[in-house]
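=== RUN LOG ===
request id: a7f3
mode: sequence -> structure
chains: 1
length: 90
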Amino acid sequence: MDSIFEEIKNERLAQDAKWGEQNHKPIEWVAILTEEVGEVSKEALENHFKEYYRDVDRLANYRKELIQVAAVAVAMIESLERNKPLYQKL
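=== RESULT ===
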């Protein structure tokens, strides 16, 4: 489990390096997360239904997308913690 959490942490660092600190509204975060979950679904469906896609690389892509989903969920929590005082004023 520790190695998986390390991968998620590394993905979070990569996201911040690429996009900078993100402070979206909750509904915007949900849209971002849903897009990432859609990529997981795409990889799972292609692995399941398309025989010529059924290989180690397809499952590796599925796993990579799952790490991204987890990292986005962590980013959502980080943003919520940073912006909690702002949200409490609404």
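=== NOTES ===
DSSP finds three helices and no strands in the chain.
Helices lie at 2-19, 26-49, 56-88.
=== END ===
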